[in-house]
Design brief:
mainly alpha, two-stranded antiparallel sheet, 3% strand, elongated
Length: 183
């Protein structure tokens, strides 16, 4: 996976615009679907409690709106406008995959296994850690999460120092998600 350089202001602007657009689309579609469902299947009378009895149709309208909005987002995510957003999303998926894997109601932490093998100077483990910390630092910077960025930088420096002591070169472009299947 190639590490890209992302402009923070452009990323934030696009992310905010996409979130507002998604929420707006969701709200409009929920109202639209709810209104159509009530017009077609709703009851016109008001019960003694003051309810129209159309709550279930409104809920169904929201569910349909979520499905429709998700479908629309899935179709447009390959547009070049979404490149930065999709890149960060894929990085976060890789981070999650490095950190842990779920198997039938159990959580196995891969990061602990990767760190353990890295202490034995295993090249792929060091490469995974270098990629993990480098991209984590990038994502934290883009998302304005500066609280833990110094700890990430310290861990990244330790990985590169260990690699230098063993005369290993860590080319981050050599990282593939397939490396994680070994842990």
């Amino acid at each position: 996976m190639k590490i890209l350089t992302i402009d923070k202001d452009t990323y934030r602007k696009k992310t905010n615009l996409v979130m507002v657009g998604f929420v707006g689309c969701l709200a409009v579609l929920a109202i639209l679907f709810g209104s159509i469902l009530i017009a077609l299947f709703g009851s016109e009378g008001i019960t003694e409690s003051g309810s129209t009895g159309n709550f279930h149709l409104n809920v169904l309208g929201v569910i349909l709106a979520v499905i429709a909005s998700s479908f629309i987002m899935n179709k447009v995510k390959s547009h070049p406008y979404f490149d930065e957003i999709m890149y960060v999303w894929k990085l976060k998926q890789a981070h999650h995959r490095i950190y842990r894997i779920y198997r039938i109601y159990r959580i196995y932490r891969k990061l602990a296994k990767i760190k353990e093998k890295a202490t034995r100077n295993e090249h792929n483990s060091l490469l995974i850690l270098a990629f993990y910390y480098t991209t984590q630092q990038q994502v934290f910077t883009l998302d304005n999460n500066t609280l833990t960025i110094t700890a990430v930088q310290k861990s990244l420096n330790e990985v590169y120092e260990q690699a230098a002591e063993m005369n290993l070169t860590l080319e981050l472009d050599d990282f593939t998600v397939d490396l994680l299947d070994r842990y």
